């Protein structure tokens, strides 16, 4: 028991080290949760769509699909089918890395998207297999990982995003080309049941969708397509505003973690950022241009925000990545300024995925099947993760909100690795600050914080 208590205390200490300042403020409040409940599920609750078989199904990661069970009962299938199943399972399980924290396996087809809940407790994944699965991050250290399954009727989801209160999620439907909302209800055994909102959002986009999101404030939903269109919606599925990015084509768009900004990048060599403005009473007012990130010489593949939106990172087809200071007075026409830049030759050959850690210290880049993890401040390469999804390209790359993990999808499994680079970068930065601190008291405080980061790093590497 003493050992378990020690591990719990150590885990909490790790969380406090990497948790960005003001995280709780950015997350949804009780009012946000109430707003979601009222708008998505309060109206027409009796009309909720039933999920097939049951609202939720909890399965072990190695559980066989039901149609497989039927085939076995009828005769077990051919030897070729069995060999192919064993071969696919072996191929999916061969990846290993010293920092691997968890492999989430249950989908029978490729995972197309993943998202961490704002409280860091859950991971949502969606797949071509017509299901969405909810996993619990507290199980990452376990050998087996169970999930709660929500079925996507007569369609499949290509994107999934949690609501700010972590009690609902939205998906983009591939065939219907619209948003569907799911509510999560926790059962006595700790798993989830799911119910679907009475109505899907109206179909408005005319081009392929590249991203969706819900603002941390709970005030709007964003959908962005590959033409030049970004729609902002209220929670009832009515359009608040439409943004024409004028970038010829959109490559990526996202809402900032603070919920104030929407950014986009595409064919042009810049990133455009808008502020979504509301009145003091919560009513939508306008979308206004905030600032632009200029400096790349070719199309921008992707970008990311730090948790407080004071840092942004970009990666471009010109073969470079950049880290920007965006803690500016943009209403006074102050421009963001460049902090760091580095080379990333893979970006000249293929589209890239980018993730910036919540504290802005670590940058993860993926072009094709390999992930590179860098110290965003010094541009030093910290980790190379080769083939987390075999030969498949990384489709999505994201840090959890507390900065503990980096997760990716690309094949039928989700790979989760420890963010060791985050603790290393934090310790080194604190040690540098301690050397130039103005007095002994400040030096001692910074050194103690650096020691805690080093201790957390040792715990990760010891487990690995």
UniProtKB/TrEMBL annotation:
WD repeats lie at residues 104-136, 202-236, 293-334. Residues 54-94 are annotated as: Disordered. The chain crosses the membrane at residues 22-42. InterPro entries: WBSCR13, WD40/YVTN_repeat-like_dom_sf, WD40_PAC1, WD40_repeat_CS, WD40_repeat_dom_sf, WD40_rpt. Gene3D superfamilies: YVTN repeat-like/Quinoprotein amine dehydrogenase (2.130.10.10). The keyword Transit peptide does not apply. Keywords: Membrane, Repeat, Transmembrane, Transmembrane helix, WD repeat. SUPFAM superfamilies: WD40 repeat-like. One of its GO terms (biological process) is endoplasmic reticulum unfolded protein response. Pfam families: WD40. The keyword Acetylation does not apply. GO terms for cellular component: endoplasmic reticulum. PROSITE patterns: WD_REPEATS_1 (PS00678), WD_REPEATS_2 (PS50082), WD_REPEATS_REGION (PS50294). PANTHER family: TRANSDUCIN BETA-LIKE PROTEIN 2. This is Transducin beta-like protein 2. The lineage of its organism: Eukaryota, Metazoa, Chordata, Craniata, Vertebrata. The gene is TBL2.
């Amino acid at each position: 028991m003493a050992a378990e208590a020690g591990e719990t205390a150590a885990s909490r200490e790790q969380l406090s080290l990497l948790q960005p300042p003001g995280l709780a403020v950015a997350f949804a409040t009780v009012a946000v949760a109430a707003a979601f409940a009222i708008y998505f599920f309060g109206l027409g609750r009796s009309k909720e769509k039933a999920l097939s078989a049951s609202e939720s199904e909890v399965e072990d990661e190695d559980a066989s699909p039901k149609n497989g069970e039927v085939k076995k009962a009828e005769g077990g299938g051919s030897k070729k089918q069995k060999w192919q199943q064993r071969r696919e399972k072996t191929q999916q399980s061969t990846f290993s890395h010293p920092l691997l924290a968890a492999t989430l396996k249950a989908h029978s087809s490729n995972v197309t998207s993943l998202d961490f809940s704002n409280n860091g407790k859950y991971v949502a994944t969606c797949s071509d297999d017509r299901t969405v699965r909810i996993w619990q991050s507290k199980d990452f250290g376990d050998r087996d990982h169970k999930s709660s399954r929500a079925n996507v009727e007569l369609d499949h989801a290509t994107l999934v995003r949690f609501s700010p209160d972590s009690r609902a999620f939205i998906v983009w439907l591939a065939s219907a080309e619209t948003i569907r909302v799911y509510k999560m209800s926790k059962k006595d055994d700790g798993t989830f049941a799911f119910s679907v909102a009475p109505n899907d959002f109206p179909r408005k986009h005319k081009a392929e969708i590249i991203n969706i999101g819900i603002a941390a404030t709970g005030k709007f939903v964003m959908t962005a397509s590959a033409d030049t269109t970004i729609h902002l919606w209220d929670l009832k599925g009515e359009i608040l505003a439409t943004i024409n990015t004028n970038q010829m084509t959109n490559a990526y768009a996202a809402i900032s973690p603070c919920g104030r900004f929407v950014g986009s990048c595409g064919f042009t060599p810049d990133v455009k950022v808008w502020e979504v403005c509301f009145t003091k009473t919560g009513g939508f007012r306008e979308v206004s241009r905030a600032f632009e990130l200029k400096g790349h010489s070719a199309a921008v593949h992707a970008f990311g925000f730090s948790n407080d939106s004071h840092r942004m990172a970009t990666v471009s087809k010109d073969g470079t990545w950049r880290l920007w200071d965006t803690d500016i007075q943009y209403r006074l026409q102050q421009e963001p300024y460049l902090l760091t830049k580095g080379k990333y030759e893979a970006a000249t050959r293929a589209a890239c995925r980018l993730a910036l850690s919540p504290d802005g210290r670590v940058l993860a880049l993926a072009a094709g099947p390999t992930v590179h993890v860098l110290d965003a401040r010094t541009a030093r390469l910290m980790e190379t993760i080769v083939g987390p999804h075999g030969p498949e390209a990384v489709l999505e790359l994201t840090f959890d909100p507390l900065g503990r993990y980096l997760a990716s999808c690309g094949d039928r499994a989700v790979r989760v690795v420890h963010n060791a680079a985050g603790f290393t970068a934090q310790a080194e930065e604190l040690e540098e600050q301690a050397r130039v601190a103005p007095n002994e008291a400040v030096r001692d405080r910074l050194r103690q914080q650096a020691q805690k980061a080093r201790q957390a790093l040792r715990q990760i590497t010891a487990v690995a």
